[in-house]
Amino acid sequence: MASGGSAIRGSRVGAGPMGEQDRGYHAERVTISYWDALGNEVVRHFAANVPDEEIPETVDSPSSGLPAGRDKADPPTVAKLEPYKTHLAYVKERRSEEEAAQLLEEALQQLRVRRGKA
Prior knowledge:
Blueprint (H helix, E strand, L loop, with lengths): L28 E7 L5 E7 L10 E3 L6 E3 L17 H8 L2 H19 L3
């Protein structure tokens, strides 16, 4: 079977870059600059019809991971860093020692019943 001559399979004859008019409508947008504590600028684009209260005051800087704010002279500082907590640490925040002992005893009792040793 002979090739149809199209360089790109599935393209139609005459296909190519068409004008902007055929690619859709570009919404108006505003550009907001944010700065982190190291002086890095982060640029974000928002639709022009977005209300000001929906545009965030801070964003995360992709280059440093620090928070970035709109005021270049006074960028936001890093909030207190929380150390990594294990699952057990979170459980201990929610349960007292007495509750933990009671839950353990209930679980062991259920296990003994299932195994026929109660």
